[in-house]
Amino acid sequence: MRALVISGGGSKGAFAGGVAQFLMQYLGYEYNMFLGTSTGSLLIPHLSLNKIDKVYNLFTNVTQRDIFSVSPFVQRKKGDREYVSIDFVNSIWQFIRMKRTFGESKHLKRNIKRNFSKEEFETIKKTKEDVVVTVSNLSKNKEEYKSINDCTYEEFCNWIWISCNYIPFMSLATVDGFEYADGGLGCVIPIREAILRGATEIDAIVLESENMEHKKVLGKNPFSLMLNLFGHLLDQVERNDITIGKLAAKNKGVKLNLYYTPTSLTENSLIFSKPLMEKWWQQGYDYAKKKHESAMSNELKE
pLDDT tens for residues 164-198? Predict the structure, then answer.
């Protein structure tokens, strides 16, 4: 049973889309199972339907307004460079309203249902073994995996949305008395879960470079520094997930193919820029093609 697993990574999901396009369209890989965290959870329902063009249009045209009902960020441009700063007015307003997060992502919840129909949901249930999204149950301090086979359409859309809620910058959700947030807070890339669910070969797309090759520039105010800190912590979770996944794959005899980003794409993956995401999509496609050609060349030499 072949599985496609996609990590969290916000706007970097465009890179994962490019990799998936190469694997599914160029190589013709067919997957029985799809698992994702955060941005990966947004991609996998459409990929499971083999709707590559739809995913491309959705990801390369998304804007801040499609995600945030209250945005904690202001996107600015200086020359050719786009950068982000904190929207202090919105953040202070959240405090005044006694909210626990700097921003709200209710627009994302609306757009998930707008772009993923009930008919598509039913088609996936009939044609695929499983589609699974990762969420973090903060009340129980554990990650949970929500299968399309165990959910109604409304429930599954809600879990996809929750999987993407990168707190404290996005919404905190409550389900059955438990508080939930971004799946990446517990598991950034669910390789081990794919193995536990019966995968025998896994293509895992990791939306981070394998080796950090540059010096990170830390934020100049407490909010942006907090974003850097969260990014650092999630990097550690991701490395742990990959190590556990590799060990599980080795013990179970599962073939694991890892696809990393060749470079660090962005310092703030909550900023969505059409030119950048189009570029990252193409980079993902080209990277996967180069990796495949290199592997084929090595096999011929042997």
Answer: 999 888 899 999 999 999 999 999 999 999 999 99
The H or E element containing residue 186 is none
pLDDT digit string (tens) for 15-38? 999 999 999 999 999 999 999 999
Question: What is each CA distance from 155 to 51, 79, 83, 173, 299, in whole angstroms?
Answer: 22, 44, 35, 13, 45
How open is the CA angle 20-59-246, to the nearest 5 degrees?
Answer: 40
- Compute the residue count for the chain: 302
In contact, 266 and 207? CB cutoff 8 Å? no
Q: How far apart are CA 205 and CA 259, in angstroms?
A: 5
Residue among 157, 158, 164 nearest 181 (CA): 164
Phi, psi dihedral angles at 187 (to 5 degrees): -150, 110
Q: Are 14 and 284 in contact (CB under 8 A)?
A: yes
Q: Which of 153, 137, 152, 160 is nearest to 36 (CA)?
A: 160
For residue 3, the tally of other CB atoms under 10 A from its CB is: 27
Q: Which runs of consecutive H residues, i.e. helices, occur in the chain? A: 13-21, 39-48, 52-61, 64-67, 88-96, 106-115, 118-127, 153-163, 191-196, 222-252, 274-301
Q: CA torsion angle for 88, 89, 94, 98 (degrees, to 10)?
A: 100
- Cβ proximity of 242 and 42 under 8 Å: no
Bridge-based pairing state of the strands 33-37 and 2-6: parallel
